[in-house]
Amino acid sequence: MAATIPVTDTSTISIRLRCLALAALCFHAFFAMTGFGGQLKPEYGAMLALLLMLASGATPWRELAKQPAARLLAVSTLFVVVHAGYATQVFPSIGYSKQLSAAAELVRLGVFSCVIGWWLSLMPRAIPVLLGLMVAGLLIAIATRMPWADLPLIWSGQYRPKFGLPENLSGQLAALASWLSFCLLLVVWDARSRVRWRGALLAACLLGYAGSFSALLFSQSRGAWLAFVAMLPLTAVALGYARRRNRKTAMPWAPWAPLASVVALSLLLTLGANGIVAKRFAGAQELLPDIATTDEGTAETEAPLSKPAAKSAPTDPAPKPTDATNKAKEINNTAVSVRMELYDLGVERWQQRPLLGWGLRSTSALIAGSGLDLSGQRHAHLHSAYLDALVGMGAIGAVLFGLLFVLLLRELILAWRSGTVSDAGFWTLAGSIGIVLVANGFDSLLWRHAHARAPLEIIFGCCVAYGLIRRRRAAVD
């Protein structure tokens, strides 16, 4: 996914440290989307990589200090420390440590992205391996938690399985894994004779896509579906642009065969799961998620559907299709109206404190004290990460962290324009970021779940890595 770039000022980093760091990054990638917990948390790999970077001398810190994103991260860290004290004054019932711990998750996302990025800048060939490990980890987690005996009920949409994570989060991760599998398929196809075991890798990518796309359907997350579908037009434009760009080369990039395979596979799986799609968009009552709230004000996982009871002899005639449709529409309208009330509440509370907000940990308390009638449901977030950011940190904090993401994406764009990263590599990372951005517009996954941030630490780390490689090449030239 990247050309071989001469590395300067890093020759003192020993091979042993690099191997240990690679093992740590592989650990982080494999468990980034699994939710196993215990000793298998992905951040342990990133923490080990940070310790290894501390043992690498001053070179990493000098290089990262030249990165605009790293400098803005230092400013953002100072802001959240001060802002947590401000939020404690706004909500004295929520202690400083809780306010700071909620905001510190974003700081950790930035720090781990920089750490992973610096190590990957020394080992750019490991980037496709890490992305593949992310997909493999998710598929293994799903396989070990899948209620295989209930698979017919799952395909028909009568049972919504849980894979150890909230359904909406598992949907976002499955959409991300589907996109990565598709892009890796294109990368392997484009590599042609330069990759050993090319046929086996192509089959593995197709199998990974089939499993990830099935998990995306099983999650029944409409936001994740929309996020994945939103990337398809970009894919068509990217493929056409790449073909035109490489038309004069000896080996033009023409991945129409794998693209057709993925489209056909997606259509077959969607047709096979037409009951899921129909019921989800109809807003059937059994698919309406229930959000619970813990005593600390964070949302627990959505309650899974209970298994349907055994069929008994029918005593009453089946309801008319018209009645079932009207009932589904009524339930769907209720779900939409609840979210609209939460959006209105969020905008109203942000307007009361537009610059600094109320504190990231204060959102659930604002909802509980609003007196809104939410149809018997309890919500700990506003169903939009962006609205949660404005209410929690105000315009100042939201702009700071928004600029941080923009600077990371800027590194990727500049690396692509300079030829440091290939077309396939660019769209792999840009599409992944796009999926996360779209999905978080309809839910607040980024703030509440570590496994929503762990994949981003690798994706943003790749952006940092390509930025470092580009700067080293410019220094050599």
Structure in a nutshell:
The protein has 477 residues and is an all-alpha fold.
Q: State the end-to-end distance.
A: 21 Å
Radius of gyration: 23 Å
Beta-strand percent range: under 5%
Output the structural class.
Answer: mainly alpha
What does this structure look like?
- The protein has 477 residues and is mainly α.
- It has 18 helices and no strands.
- It has helices at residues 15-30, 43-54, 59-65, 68-90, 96-122, 127-145, 151-156, 167-191, 198-219, 222-245, 256-272, 274-282, 321-352, 363-368, 385-417, 423-439, 445-448, 450-476.
- Residues 2-8, 248-253 and 283-329 have low confidence and may be disordered.
Summarize this structure as a short list of keywords or feature phrases:
477 residues, mainly alpha, 18 helices, 68% helix
Describe the secondary structure blueprint for this structure.
Elements: H1 15-30, H2 43-54, H3 59-65, H4 68-90, H5 96-122, H6 127-145, H7 151-156, H8 167-191, H9 198-219, H10 222-245, H11 256-272, H12 274-282, H13 321-352, H14 363-368, H15 385-417, H16 423-439, H17 445-448, H18 450-476
